[in-house]
Amino acid sequence: MVPPHLLPVPLGQIVATPAALTALTQPDIVAALRRHISGDWGEVDDDDRRANDESVRDGTRLLSAYTSAGGTAFWVITEADRSVTTVLLPDDY
Predict the structure, then answer these.
(1) Which burial class, exposed, middle or buried, applies to 74 when counting CB atoms under 10 A from its CB (0-12, 13-18, 19+)?
(2) What does the buried/exposed string (b/e) look like for 42-64 if buried means 16 or more CB atoms within 10 Å of the residue's CB?
(3) Partner of 17 for a Cys bridge, out of 22, 46, 50, 92, CB 3.0 to 4.6 A?
(4) pLDDT digits (tens, 9 = 90+) for 73-91
């Protein structure tokens, strides 16, 4: 887990793809953003988890993966410059 002094992660402008807005509920999105900002990267593999932990320190892109209450897999990506965070489905990438 990321040391607490390196969190929360700035999200910048929060946007979502049309497909994500159709497939996900607002509570799904809000819960994922709360997890993402706190360093809970969700269902990523160990390599992506380590990369995210390093990214909090060195300012590169962050990728989290979650599953909605309805079973839809989705991602939250914060750009390296922390200007934008996008909620999207894997097929949107």
Answers:
(1) buried
(2) bebeeebbebbbebbeeeeebbb
(3) 92
(4) 999 999 999 999 999 999 9
Separation between Cα atoms, residue 49 and residue 40, nearest integer Å: 9
Q: What is the pTM of this model?
A: 0.91
User: Which amino acid does the sequence have at 16?
Assistant: A
Sign of CA dihedral 33, 34, 36, 41: negative
What are the structure tokens assigned to 66, written together? 């979650």
87 in helix, strand or coil? strand
